Amino acid sequence: MKITCLRTDLAEAVSNVSRAVSTKASIPALEGILIKAYNSQLNISGYNLEIGITTDIEAQTIEEGEIVVSAKLFLDIVRRLPEEVVQIETDERMVTYIRCGQADYQIVGISSLEYPDLPTFERTDGITVNSKILREMIRQTVYAVSDNMNKPIYTGSLFEIENSLFKIIAVDGYRMAIRTETVECDSKNSFVVPGKTQHEVLKLLNDDETEVEIIIGMRHITFRIKNYSVISRLIEGTFLDYKSTIPTESKTEVIIKTRKIIESVERMSLLNNDRLQSPVRCKFADDEIRLSCASSVGRANDIITVPVSGEPVEIGFNNRYMLDAFKNTDTDEIKLVLNGPIAPMLVKPIEGDSFVSIVVPMRLAND
Fold it and tell me: Is the pLDDT of residue 48 over 90?
């Protein structure tokens, strides 16, 4: 293999692809990236047997070929090269030569025959989504994905397509997040995408109007984002019947500025840390929310003056779960819906249901 390409293109591609590379793998090749030179393209792939990321960049191909090189070492070298044009060459001994300006490296590679094939699958369905919309949908739900491997199905989000609506639902037993968008799609489908995959997709999505193609198979999925493809297995199993868990009643409602409630909860959170998890007590009554938190290090109180509709209620929440729900809204004002001291709280937009967050309360000491 012998090619020349631009250093900035190469560094960006290797940086993104390297996120799918195993840091400690039983197969040495999986700690590397696969580089293939063909026609006027350089294809770069990373794969950890769960997620694969692959991309093409423009290159001048003098001699076609392929090689596996250490992802970390190769990225460190490329980032520090002194000039813009890079020449990469390999020989029959799997030695890779990297030249740029006066800098010259020789690193040992691995035969591409030792690199596992990325999954290929038959397309059973697909959907096209605006990049900005998909970015917001994932951002506003992935925080509620579980990290408990005892229930693998909840380590991913349910992607649901039905009646021209595209929904992403995440749940971890303590909170749930639902994000809904209207799409031009006649399909009816549902599948569970791992949270780790969504985090990688999120890093590649831009806040622009480009289209992202989602290709769905029986056990795998591919996200095509510009010149990148993210390939992942799907999680098999039965997801929660989330619709039956959404409260339909409304005993107490508050419309409040998002920033105001975030700042107040953050003030209460100062008395909590990873070892201390005292609930934030919230009393909704008499057109105000009284917040308080008491832990072994002290006590904090705050009052927000805001119209409260319906019955008075006193309820406690994990401060982090509250903040996750509030911070992942996309509106200046939100509606809080409560149904008593032990029922979950709904966080919604003032109108519509483009997003719904549900937070399960903590029992207070005097309950």
Answer: yes
